[in-house]
Amino acid sequence: MKPFAFLPSRSGWLAILVLAVAAPGAGAQSKSAPDGFAELAAKLLPSVVNISTTQVIEGRPGMELPKLPPGSPFEDFFKEFFDRNQPEQRARRATSLGSGFIVDERGYVVTNNHVIQDADEITVVLHDDTRLKAELVGRDAKTDIAVLRVKPKEKEKLGAVKFGNSDKSRVGDWIVAIGNPFGLGGTVTAGIISARGRDINAGPYDDFIQTDASINRGNSGGPMFNMAGEVIGINTAIFSPTGGSVGIGFAIPATAAKPVIDQLIKHGQVRRGWLGVHIQAVTDEIAETLGLKEAAGALVASVIKEGPAEKAKIEAGDVILDFDGKKVTEMRRLPRMVADTEVGKEVPVTVWRNNKKVALKAKVGELTEAVAEVAAKSGDTKKGGAEETNVEALGLRLTSITPKVAEQFKLGKDAKGVVVLKVDEKGPAAEKGIRPGDVIVEVSQEEVRAPGDISKKVADAKKAGRKSVLLLLEGQGGLRFVAIRIDKG
Questions:
Q1: Closest CA to 99 of 265, 261, 223
Q2: Catalytic residue among 52, 99, 140, 144
Q3: Which sign, positive or negative, has the C-alpha torsion 157, 158, 159, 162?
């Protein structure tokens, strides 16, 4: 079981423990430790709320009356016995506690989706212990964010917090977290940003900020502030082998949360952008093979048919370097960039193709459940006799596609390329996870139809002084690029 966990609250509900983010704002540039957090805490505490949820859990049915023949003299006896002795199974109410914070004077409150998930009733408890019933405005499971709304008493003003720019936060910056750990309410803890850009496999858009501030059960959904009193993260998860705080918590960065919150307030749901590509990371070897100076960007493994990328002339083998004026520093940042882009917006895209930058324009589509399942397949089946070749530089034995080979490896009728028959366990291909049955579609971004094509491409690469070749493979996991070293030095 992974130690990143949705931790059980006091009711037995699943609740995530949280860490938040910190980013220095104006006034947070001092390198010396703060004298204290009292003034900052006094200012922020009224804007942080406790979230109490109630769920009605149906009681289990009791024992059933035995089946008896119609008119049996024992029927009334058993009925009376069961009615008198069977314990009554009533529905029970389970409660759970979490945290949240006010983002608008009109009564909008932000928390984690998992805090209010499956709740029948939601109550927001203000800093002065005022209890207000809350309605759910909208939720987004992919980012674990939910927005609630409460109606304050007449003439009562709610103090809202401001969001900061979490992109400016640095490892080592001071942060303050406020929340409702273990239902104690109004608890302030402090720490520093321990790391940024953490991926804990919680969702498709992981980009958490890690902190060592003490975060515990019930802190979920609470804010973390920088020294300027700005929210730079939403407490969401902790790393804990024991279930308690061990000084490793994670928060959703404010720059990622704010667009989601705005959409939930405005529309009650989130519309995400969609580009229509399958991508993978650019490794040092791939970068060298493609002539890139650094391992950055997102390598396009395949393009979904009739998607926005295909219409924009983006091709498999392109490396997306910039999207909508923002640099794609690493592959996993591109999905977040696209998702945060307004649906229907035409954006500039810079790709690396054939050793040069190419400027394109793409009209962003909308990501739906249907398009998320779409995958592109292509090719023409090669017919005729099989051709087999050993390519020692790769550690592969290869064959052309014939009906017999296609049947042996259960290839699609449209499969094209060269099939891997055998992999040398000590060869470079084995180190990259290539397996028998994988189909090599391209070498150095050029199509191959026969094993001899691959041998020639490898020989040409060696002659040109290249240290590796780039293969486009199709296997059980779909299309992917693999760079394989061909120099034994």
A1: 223
A2: 144
A3: negative
Domain residues for the domain of 436 are 388-485
Query: CA distances (Å), 244 to each of 11, 50, 97, 179, 464, in order?
Result: 16, 20, 16, 15, 58
Is 186 within a domain? yes
Q: How many CB atoms lie within 10 A of CB 286?
A: 20
Helix or strand run (H / E) with residue 191: strand 187-198
Which residues on neighbouring strands pair with residue 60, listed in sequence order? none
392, 454 contact by CB (below 8 A): no
Inside any domain, residue 433: yes
Provide DSSP, 401-466.
Answer: --HHHHHHTT--TT--SEEEEEE-TTSHHHHTT--TT-EEEEETTEE--SHHHHHHHHHHHHHTT-
What does the block give as tokens for 275? Answer: 């580009």
How many domains does one find in the chain? 3
Q: How much helix, strand and coil, in percent to the nearest 5, is found in the chain?
A: 20, 35, 45
User: Does any domain span residue 83?
Assistant: no
Same domain, 324 and 452: no
Q: How far apart are CA 202 and CA 67, in angstroms?
A: 49
Closest CA to 101 of 220, 228, 245: 220
Q: Do 215 and 260 share a structural domain?
A: yes
Q: Is residue 228 part of a domain?
A: yes
Catalytic residue among 52, 99, 114, 438: 114
| Domain shared by 22 and 167, yes or no | yes
Residue 114 is among the residues annotated as catalytic for this protein: yes
DSSP track, 89-139 = ---EEEEEEEEEEEEETTTEEEE-HHHHTT-SEEEEE-TT--EEEEEEEEE
How many residues in the chain? 489
- pLDDT (tens, 9 = 90+) of the chain, 489 residues, equals 345 444 333 333 333 333 333 333 444 444 567 888 999 999 999 999 999 998 876 655 555 655 555 555 556 666 666 666 665 556 667 778 899 999 999 999 999 999 998 888 999 999 999 999 999 999 998 899 999 999 988 778 899 999 999 999 999 999 999 998 888 888 999 999 999 988 877 777 778 999 999 888 889 999 999 999 999 999 888 887 766 778 889 999 999 999 999 999 999 999 899 999 988 889 888 999 899 999 999 999 888 888 999 999 999 899 999 999 999 998 888 988 998 898 999 999 999 999 999 999 999 999 876 655 443 333 333 334 456 788 888 989 898 888 788 888 888 877 888 999 889 888 888 888 899 999 999 998 888 888 888 988 888 888 888 888 999 998 877 888 989 988 765
Nearest to 167 by CA among 25, 29, 273, 19: 25
Catalytic residue among 166, 214, 220, 302: 220
Q: Are residues 282 and 246 part of one domain?
A: no
- Is 127 designated active site? no
Structure tokens at 149: 């709304």
Catalytic, 220? Answer yes
